[in-house]
Amino acid sequence: MISALLAAAAVLALLTLVPGPDMAVVTQAALTGGRSSGFRVSVGIVSGLLVWGLLTVLGLSAILAASAEAYTAVKLAGAAYLIYLGVRALWQSRASAAVHGPSASVVHKAGTWKTGFTTNLLNPKIAVFYTGLLPQLVPAGWPTGLSLALLVLIHVAISIAWLSTYVVLLSRARSTFEKPKVRQMLERVTGTVLLGFGVKIALEAR
Question: CA distances (Å), 3 to each of 9, 17, 76, in order?
Fold first, then answer.
């Protein structure tokens, strides 16, 4: 049983490391707003995972995963939010060239709990991931509901550890991006990445 859980944790860890919208918003927050901003976004992302996990245990996320209309609605809402974040980052990059260091408002907007939570909650692929993969990782003979809850908690723990480590590493490199021109370039890159994720999610099939 322990070996089965370790194998499941390894699969969840590999999937956690795959770059996606969550990683993009954490990167933007940590590099433009510092460690605290990165942590706030990370906590929001983990909060979203807990909501998806609860819906999965209750069987509600399977409804979203099975309904083309509901899936499309959430997908388009998530894509629109990422595009909004990308446009905002690009707009802020215009101001970065005129100032020597981030303003208080830019730092505040760079990373909030709401940003991470909304980005994760509007990602319907999490529902597909939880309803499609997690049941396959349940050890044979274990009760399904409790096993799914345990796997969700393992995934959350892995996500917290990885995102926290990632934020610390990015925040240490932040001094490199303090120059206005470098900051402007960074904001343009992260804004473009967020826009790209938004367009990709909007256009891709299930």
Answer: 10, 21, 39
